[in-house]
């Protein structure tokens, strides 16, 4: 199943194709600002029944170097099958469009980024024939944008910075700068940034930081997405409150609460389960028995 971070890491370039020229300086390459950019179909299926799709495919027009294609892939972990697939994508696109074709791989952790940026050849060492050299965007080279003014100058880049640093300690500061910058942005500009950032953070703990920031710093927005994120934040707060109630009842009754019981209660986010535990906490002789029949 395709995950939200996977979608956000490449669709953000569809949202703003010019982002790649701004990102390129962090990748060690000099890509001129395009005079024109277009999102192309991603279906690379051949006539035989084998479906191949690149995540995002863009065509750029430049004054100095002419047109070129950029295939963008989101990669969440190492996959020994991927280099061969990427080589196929670039060779096929080069053949189909007769245009220079580059590959950008977007990652969220250092190990995957280091693996993805290795050059891989299709032939034996003495006959490399076709060599794949992707450029990689990840926590190792994307900017750490913690200044709201810098974030305001390029909201999309700031969102990508948050996504690629989702597992890094600096992500909280990036998210705070981004939410501050978005206060002044029109709703039609802010909404997709809020969405990409929420999707890109996936299951990382930073998603809770972002949802809280959206609920507080962007409280004046009324879009469906912002309301959904805000409601999730409120639901999490209600669950945390109910978990505290369960533990408080057990403590007031003088029952011994082990670390295992405390962890299980505080980590539960299901309000109905917490409600049943709270009801049992009133009468059980031992704290562990609130989990009875589960």
Automatic annotation (TrEMBL):
It comes from the Bacteria. PANTHER family: SLL0800 PROTEIN, SLL6017 PROTEIN. This is Transposase (putative) YhgA-like domain-containing protein. It comes from Streptomyces thermocarboxydus.
